[in-house]
């Protein structure tokens, strides 16, 4: 019996490796096809009509990898969204391949320094990043809440074998819509640092933005954020407040 189980386990492992390799090469071929189409204008990469998410990529002068853009709709209030964004310890539940996240310093009511560790594919060292997030709150006359994120690699000394990311930058605009919905518009750029195959880096640029927004949509639907009673240090306005 043990011999049969061992043989079955070996076959299962071999089958999984074949599937994984096929998936990787398929992704690489797909990216090679896409790379030939990418220029200085935005190219639509994914249009998920069911979840109201669109992602784009383009090349920019002076940047090694492609930049990204996301357009999406969130079904939540601005209050629920703010509580998710400020819950830094739980970014591991929704942010792209994040196995560690924590707040290092709150410099003001709207400025935060956050540390994150991202999982890398097998054979590549995991990445860590220090990011500075600055929130531009809404006002009675400015409907959108804006989040600007930039890498802050010199804030902490390196932590080998982790590779420090030199860029995880983005600007996100959240605009309230009728019926407790929010329009999300984001642009950004990731640079994993160190040595990474170009196809793998571009795969992250292509996949991570969609995954992050998908995770955000899921988090804002949770009661712990929708019904949170925690006070926020900046004003919040929903669509009806501007009527």
TrEMBL record:
Signal peptide: 1-26
Keyword Signal carried by entry: yes
Keywords: Signal
Entry-linked SUPFAM superfamilies: Bet v1-like
Gene3D superfamilies the record matches: 3.30.530.20
Domain of life, per lineage: Bacteria
MF terms in GO: lipid binding
Domain START: 42-202
Protein name as catalogued: START domain-containing protein
Provenance organism: Agitococcus lubricus
Organism lineage: Bacteria, Pseudomonadati, Pseudomonadota, Gammaproteobacteria, Moraxellales
